[in-house]
Design brief:
8 copies of one chain form a homooctamer.
Chain A lengths: L3 E7 L5 H11 L4 E4 L5 H12 L5 H20 L4 E5 L7 H12 L4 E4 L9 H6 L2 E3 L2 H12 L1
Parallel strand pairs in A: 1-2, 1-3, 3-4, 4-5
Amino acid sequence: MMKLTVYLAGEIHSNWREELKEKANKANLDLSFVGPQTNHDRSDDIGEAILGKQPEQVYRDDAASDINNFRTNVLMQKADIVIALFGEQYKQWNTAMDLSSAVTLNKPTILIRPESLIHPLKELSNKSNVTVETVDQALDVLKYVYE
Amino acid sequence: MMKLTVYLAGEIHSNWREELKEKANKANLDLSFVGPQTNHDRSDDIGEAILGKQPEQVYRDDAASDINNFRTNVLMQKADIVIALFGEQYKQWNTAMDLSSAVTLNKPTILIRPESLIHPLKELSNKSNVTVETVDQALDVLKYVYE
Amino acid sequence: MMKLTVYLAGEIHSNWREELKEKANKANLDLSFVGPQTNHDRSDDIGEAILGKQPEQVYRDDAASDINNFRTNVLMQKADIVIALFGEQYKQWNTAMDLSSAVTLNKPTILIRPESLIHPLKELSNKSNVTVETVDQALDVLKYVYE
Amino acid sequence: MMKLTVYLAGEIHSNWREELKEKANKANLDLSFVGPQTNHDRSDDIGEAILGKQPEQVYRDDAASDINNFRTNVLMQKADIVIALFGEQYKQWNTAMDLSSAVTLNKPTILIRPESLIHPLKELSNKSNVTVETVDQALDVLKYVYE
Amino acid sequence: MMKLTVYLAGEIHSNWREELKEKANKANLDLSFVGPQTNHDRSDDIGEAILGKQPEQVYRDDAASDINNFRTNVLMQKADIVIALFGEQYKQWNTAMDLSSAVTLNKPTILIRPESLIHPLKELSNKSNVTVETVDQALDVLKYVYE
Amino acid sequence: MMKLTVYLAGEIHSNWREELKEKANKANLDLSFVGPQTNHDRSDDIGEAILGKQPEQVYRDDAASDINNFRTNVLMQKADIVIALFGEQYKQWNTAMDLSSAVTLNKPTILIRPESLIHPLKELSNKSNVTVETVDQALDVLKYVYE
Amino acid sequence: MMKLTVYLAGEIHSNWREELKEKANKANLDLSFVGPQTNHDRSDDIGEAILGKQPEQVYRDDAASDINNFRTNVLMQKADIVIALFGEQYKQWNTAMDLSSAVTLNKPTILIRPESLIHPLKELSNKSNVTVETVDQALDVLKYVYE
Amino acid sequence: MMKLTVYLAGEIHSNWREELKEKANKANLDLSFVGPQTNHDRSDDIGEAILGKQPEQVYRDDAASDINNFRTNVLMQKADIVIALFGEQYKQWNTAMDLSSAVTLNKPTILIRPESLIHPLKELSNKSNVTVETVDQALDVLKYVYE
């Protein structure tokens, strides 16, 4: 069975990654999962944690994003598939950024979004290979690759 | 003077594009500007206008985004520079999508965003060449290319 | 107005190219059109016409396709947009080949196909930016780029 | 012995894939084979199976092709070699699409086609590395890589 | 009529370039031609002419090839089409180098070679779009693009 | 005569760019020249000039380099040829950065360096197409393209 | 745990590579490290050691850089991450060359530089993903990828 | 120790490949070697052996080169390094073709050629990373990568 690496972009305030990993594991799919730092505080603080106290919020944010973008760059280049999940809350521009970058690099992509976000996500949905509403549907798409 | 084409991604509910074009014109910069359909209703309706009535909202949106993505694809490939402006309102995932796509294609990019959006846009800002707060600052950056 | 070059792939037994050019001209769109050799006999004979009589049909066909592929390669690289039209008859694997090649090169694409071909063309339709049924609809999409 | 992955595009109504795999296995070639969903009904139904009932045939087909294209995209990027077989029946535009995409990506390609299809496939044949008539000949080409 | 630039690689001891230019001009094709330095002595001497006397032949040759490769790199990137002519004499490895480079960059290519060189040039011929024996045949292929 | 654009990277404290432009002009070469901001103070100050006072030197430098890198990115993508001149003084890591970037993008390159810098620049020299010691020699190389 | 290869460009007169490897090893990170020849004399002499005595210093240097660039080319293409360290001494144009090349190839990059080099390295710092001052900080960034 | 794959292009009438493999093995380098079919008769006959008797020599050669080019395409894409050896005899345009293709793809390259071929190979030598005269010197370069 072909081994594939899946980058899980998007929402970090629910446990959808754990849910997907567990179900993929139960289905015996030979997948390994990578993704962004999901501890929100750690992600926001990583710049100052490594580079030291910054003079203002904008520099603190820039320092954190240096390192978050480095991490994403490393892991994305290893990914065979990118799945991006948008939740009902938050701006989630990082999710759009990662998904758009994956599409531009011609990586196979799955977009997961609730029905309420159909309209604002229509162009991103159109560019992605597959758009679904639930984690279970995304898992079904992954299973189909191995059929 | 070198002729350059600038794609203006982002917010379509204010007149920032007109403002930028007029000021660039006054400064005698040899720039031509392209961008998305800025008539919001036209943009949302273009799918059904060309392809006919769709059975549900999700298909109506998908039909429109087919054609909007075609348009963006045509114009973006002609652009030497991409400027993306985020306003205080709306999801603006298209703006993030276009900017991220431009960055991935190694096009020179300027991000314009109000101070209030520093935090949610930090990774996109970090990936862009230059981040500014106002249209006038973006114009200053364009002028600097011709100095 | 931005000048764009459009490659017209597909059916060579109807006059859809002339129709499209004429209508684009009337609409004052700054488009130039290129495409395959539309004289079917000339296209089939071009190998022997230049390289001389071949020993069997398979070599005659290969000689012709050398030169047809050269022509397509030259013109496709100049194209900003690719439109492919499938008719009700013929195998039209060249049309599929050209459209798929354009999609893979990330060129903006429009697929024109009659309702009867929805099913066999579903994956190609899904990969293209826009799918329409008539030449007039394709023209509407081109007009939209200039709005 | 170098391990190679071969994508088997094309006809899904005969057992040529099984035949090729078995013979490659007997010849002790270190090849692994991937390819499209070969259960025709499953392939046509996969969109509604995962995304639910669609309002019309065109949407049902588009939903299925979303997922079939995702699958192909995942497996094609892993393939070192692409073999495409055209049979005497069916439109087989997907086969042309996959082969053309492989050629454009500079993947090594073998085209298998019956004598009766020499003429309509002449340009695709010309673009592919090797054109043969039988599965046994394709196997001979694969063996030659390991000589 | 579309303007195209043609790089003329290969033999520098006959006047085939002048012949081709003249005939293309008579046929009113909108072509411009570029190519290597055709003065053999100048080509061999250009390194020392600019960089000064070198200590041995191998350094003299390396100095010349620096500048010849620079020239080819500049002109080849501007070329829409590459034509390479092999004559009966000389090693002509530069010709093979330029043609192979053009093929790898996916530039449309025409190979001109006498019948006597069919065997040693068979792989290069196979990789090129079109192989012909005479300058007139190459001109016919160019004319066909404009038909 | 083919029009070419030349990016002049490197030293900004001597007038070598003016010298080269003038001599190219006298030789009637159809060249246009672009390059970095050569006013050193303006280059260092451009970040604060546009974005406002920064809290510390490191942020002031980062703001300036945002805009300098944007400028270089815009102009470098337009360049057909890159010439980089190293002087006897200064670190000149920007010069190395621009030249290495041009080499990696496969742009034709000329390196100008004094004899005293042969050893520390040996790997960059080896990667460039041509290495010379004087502006006049670089001009000779440019002239050779037009011979 | 994902295995990653890290290319360590830069200073060869201190033991920072050993320090980093040892600490990465203690932290159980699944990293393998590659880099340039760190024996300075060997690096300078490698050309003559293999190719024999050269007539002058400039040819001796060119012969060495042939082989050093070959080595870097082999190892850089295997690297998932590039770390470049600048010390207080030496020109270090090779370090700038390697880092710029990695950035242009879109490899994830970390720049390590002392506070004293902030100003001359500002554009390279701006292009790199992350800039730090110490080897320990670079290690922290690597650890963050595995969190 | 990093595992590397080396493609050995060039001369097939001496046993230089066996010599190199044996010496690399003795030196415990973790290299695997691939290359063209070295049985000359088999290489010339492979087209007819698989595809059947062809009507003339030119078609026999074209059939063989289809399959030889397929083989090279498969193995070259797996190669981390390309070594090309030119002998004193034969046209060896395939060797020039493979080496030029490798250079264009930015693969690290070593050219082996006798002193007598310095002049006709000067441009290819200049484009390759390293040029040596003997197999032992090429082995020394490979060893240097592992130092």
